[in-house]
C-alpha cells in the first residue's frame, strides 16, 4: 500500500525524494489506498489457459482494513471476488504479467 501511494504522489509532482516521508504521513493520518481502481482492466488465467480480460467492478474495505475486489469476467460475464494477495497469482495487473505466468504454467 505504501509503495502504491508513493507512486501516486510522484505522479502528481516532483517532491525531491520526499515521496516516502509524505506517504508515511498520509498513511499515519488515515489515508486509504486501494490496490486497484474501479473500472480498471485486470487479467486472469482462465481454467482452459486463456487470458480473461476482466474489469474491477467494486472494491470493499473490511473492518480489518483488508480489501476485497469484485471482478467481472470478460469471457462469461461472471462476477467473482478476490483479495489483493491474489494479485500476481490469479489476477494480474498487466497483460504481459498474465502472459508470462501462463507461459510458466504451461512449461514454455
Could you please describe the fold and organization of this structure?
The protein contains three helices and five strands. The protein has 108 residues and is α+β, with helices and mostly antiparallel strands. It has a five-stranded antiparallel beta sheet with strand order 4-3-2-1-5, with helices on one face. Helix 1 crosses helix 2. The N and C termini lie far apart (33 Å). The relative contact order is 0.14.
Topology record:
Layout: H1 2-12, H2 19-28, E1 41-45, E2 51-61, E3 67-72, E4 79-82, E5 91-92, H3 95-105
Antiparallel strand pairs: 1-2, 1-5, 2-3, 3-4
Helix pairs in contact: 1-2
- Helix count, per DSSP? 3
CA-to-CA gap between the ends? 33 Å
Roughly how much helix do the residues carry, as a percent range? 25-40%
What is the name of the CATH class of the largest domain? Mainly Beta
Please indicate the count of domains. 2
Amino acid at each position: 500500500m505504501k509503495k502504491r501511494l508513493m507512486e501516486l504522489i510522484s505522479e502528481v509532482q516532483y517532491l525531491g525524494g520526499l515521496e516516502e516521508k509524505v506517504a508515511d504521513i498520509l498513511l499515519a493520518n488515515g489515508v486509504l489506498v486501494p490496490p486497484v481502481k474501479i473500472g480498471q482492466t485486470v487479467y486472469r488465467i482462465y481454467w482452459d489457459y486463456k487470458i480473461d480480460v476482466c474489469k474491477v467492478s467494486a472494491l470493499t474495505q473490511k473492518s480489518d482494513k483488508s480489501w476485497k475486489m469484485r471482478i467481472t469476467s470478460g469471457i462469461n460475464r461472471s462476477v467473482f471476488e478476490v483479495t489483493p494477495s491474489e494479485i500476481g497469482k490469479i489476477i494480474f495487473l498487466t497483460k504481459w504479467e498474465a502472459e508470462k505466468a501462463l507461459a510458466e504454467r504451461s512449461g514454455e
